[in-house]
Amino acid sequence: MNKKYYQPSGYNSSFDFNGNDFGDYIDHTRKKIRLARLDLHSDYAEEIIDANAPFMWLPKENSANKKRAVLLIHGLYNSPFSLKDLGHIFYQQGFLVYSILLPGHGTVPADLLHIHRQSWQQTMDFAVNALKDNIDELYLCGMSTGALLCLDYHLRHPHMTIKSIITLAPALKIKNIAAPFSPLIAKLSPWLEKNSQDNYTKYRSFATQPVTEVYRLGKKVLKEMQKKKYLDTKLFMAYSHSDQVISAKACEQFFTRYASPDSRCVIHHSGTTVPADPRIHYLDDKFPETPPYVLRHNGLPISPENGYYGLKSDYREPKKNELLYNPQFALLAQAIVEFL
Predict the structure, then answer these.
(1) 3-283 belongs to which CATH class?
(2) Residues 6+ apart with CB under 8 A from 317
(3) Which residues make beta-bridge pairs with 267?
(4) Alpha-carbon separation of residue 36 from 39, 106, 278 (angstroms)
(5) Helix (H, G, I), strand (E, B) or coil at 306
(6) Phi, psi (rounded to 5 degrees) for 302
(7) For residue range 266-276, what is the model confidence (pLDDT) as tens digits?
(8) Distance (Å, rounded) from C-alpha 299 to C-alpha 309?
C-alpha cells in the first residue's frame, strides 16, 4: 500500500473556502481533489474527480411553481457519488440538486486523522447560506453521518425554514459496542483498519478520529431532541433493520418519539411486521439470491442500475452476503417522491 495514503495531504482537513458562490466552491474543491489524490495518473482521472467532487444540477425549467432545491450530504468515509442515484430522482421531480463534499473526504484517508465535526458543520452552513436566497424551498437529504448533520443543522438553526429533512440510515447511534470508547481508541491508534485503496468512490482505510466526531455529534443531537421533544419540520427516514453500522433501534425510537404526524418512515425488515404506526411502511429485506443476502449500510441509496455498485457492476468487496446496492431502490424512491 502507498504510504502517502496515511499521511495528510495538506489540502483537505478543514473547511477553507472563503467565498459565497456555490459554483466557486465546486471549482475550489475540485482543485484540492486534483492536488491531493494519488490515483489520477490514468484515463479515468476526470471520472474519479467527478465521483468525489461536490456538484450542482440545475434544470432548465423548474416543474413546480416554486424553486425547490435539495442539498445532499454523504456519509463517513464516502463521497458525493453515493447519493447521485437519489439526486437523479430529485432532478426528475424538477428540483435544483446540490451536493457538498465533507472536509477530510474525497482525497486521501489520512485527511480524516485530525478532522473535527465543526468543519463539517461549517460546510453545511456555507451551502445553505449560498442557496437560500435563490430558492423558495430547501430540502436536506443525508446518508448516515450526512443524515445526522442534517438534523444537527436544523437544531442549530431553528429559525431557518427547512421544508423537509430526508434521512437515510441516520447515524444517531453507532452499532459497534466500542463506539463509546472511540475517543480513547483514537489516542491509542489513529487507524481502525487499513486496506488497499481500490475503490475510487470512498475510503477503504478508516481513521479513528472521525468515528469519535460522529459518536459525539449523535449524542449531542439526541440530547437536544430530548429537551426539544419534537421535530418541527417534516421528516422522512429510511433504514434497514439489519443495518451493520448504525442502530436501527435508535432510528425507530427517534422517529416514533420526535417526528411530526405528516412524517414518513420506510424500514427494510426481514420479518413479518404489522405497522403499529401508520407513518411507517415496511419493505422486505430478504432477497431471493442464494445464499441469502442482506442490504449493506452503504447500499441503501444505491440503485441496481448504478454503474459502479449495481447489478451489472464488476466491483466487488470481500464481505460475503452483503449487497452493495438496494434491490428495493425503486420502491424507496417512490416513497420519497410521494413524501415530497
Answers:
(1) alpha beta
(2) 199, 324
(3) 239, 282
(4) 9, 9, 48
(5) coil
(6) -100, 130
(7) 998 866 666 67
(8) 8
